Amino acid sequence: MLPSALPGFRDFYPAECAERSHIFEAWREVARRFAFIEYDGPPLEPLDLYTKKSGDEIVGQLYTFEDRGGRHVALRPEMTPTLARMVAARANALRKPVRWFSIPQLFRYERQQRGRLREHFQLNLDILGEADVTADAELLAAALGIMSELGLTKDDVRARISDRRLLNGLLKLAGVSNEQLPLVYAVVDKLDREPREVLEQKLGAAGCSDLVVARIFEVLKHTDLDMLRSEFHGVAELRDDFSRLARYFEMLEALGVREWVVFDLSIVRGLAYYTGIVFELFDARGEFRAIAGGGRYDNLLAQLGGNEMPALGFGMGDVVLGELLRARNLMPPRAEALDYWVAGADGASETIVIRVATALRRRKLRVEYPLRAQKLPKQIKAAATAGAAKVLIIHDDRTATVRRLADGHEESVSLPDLLEASDDSPRDPWVFAVAR
Ligand code: HAM
Questions:
Q1: Alpha carbons 93 and 327: distance in angstroms, whole number
Q2: Residue nearest to atom 14 of ligand 1 (CA)
Q3: I want to staple 194 with a disulfide (CB 3.0 to 4.6 A). Which of 190, 207, 314, 334 is the partner?
Q4: Closest atom, ligand 1, to C-alpha of 124
């Protein structure tokens, strides 16, 4: 019996690695286009970085142990506490707003299900040091920019947004106390995933009366901001929240992404630290789990012992996104892996093959040659299997033929030209004689 990977952990064979790279490239490309710069942190952190601030759900999923020095440590289940710690430690020296991104591998001991593994890669894109709602809009536009970059459209993906400040206000009006809010949020976060009776029971157990429970469900139904606004028109406590959201939607319009976005008060996010506008991206047909999620967490830096600093960000995992891209046929076909395969015909010496391969590699071309003597037809087959664009067939020390594998087009070339060209001559006329 061969040993296998742990449940929820993936082996990335080259085909899967190519898909992963495709996603990472889109992440990096769009992050840079939106002026975010890359950072990273340690994969292993002190346990209390998470136990204090992330919320019960994620803490229940930690990979945690005592290290040999007796420290309680955990594999990172998310990046936000690490980022908050790093920025808080250099808060004064950093240019504001901080616009940083990272692609950490994260670990959560999840119950295995579609779209949820025990490790995943997650793009994190965060802005720190800006309280204005323009930053919230900019962040969501970047998340949706990635969707476009990968070939997804507004018909494929929805951004569902809400605002915890507005929801707080509405829940208080419905009779929920401050102490009950965290539990109500935990229940709301499960709205799509657990039956209503179970959620009602949980709310009841938290001390919400039947009337309050009914009002909570009434509030969560709202998906039309204008209607909600006119319903609560006279309520002074909510005025700022409504005008902030109105500006947010105006900015999203200017950023060209308004059509992707729906208002949905039932989006609260499972993590404890969010304080303002929150959002999640879903596929429009509702077949998959959340593609991404994030929002504002203005108190986290201060809670970790730093100075107050407004902050917001999102995480986008590679798992659901990969499932969606495959389902919509948006994963690219396998790219050519090699520019050249250098083959030796009968009579060509081993060393001339190697010297030619080396000369081509000096020109930054991707080149393979057989590591043991083989008949020419076998080498050409191997070249095709390796995904080579061209085979360079060496006849002897002076002559060779370039064959383009796609159509069999051939040209003769002289080897001394290649071997004697200086290392910094960027292109040999004959190397590029046959167009790629
Ligand atoms: P999160 O909602 O826990 O947020 O994760 C964000 C995204 O990561 C999810 O929407 C999903 O795509 C992916 N994801 C999470 N857990 C798993 C898993 N077990 N398997 C596969 N994919 C998963 C956060 O982690 C926040 N720290 C994001 C954030 C950054 N907020 C502010 N800045």
A1: 45
A2: 317
A3: 190
A4: 30
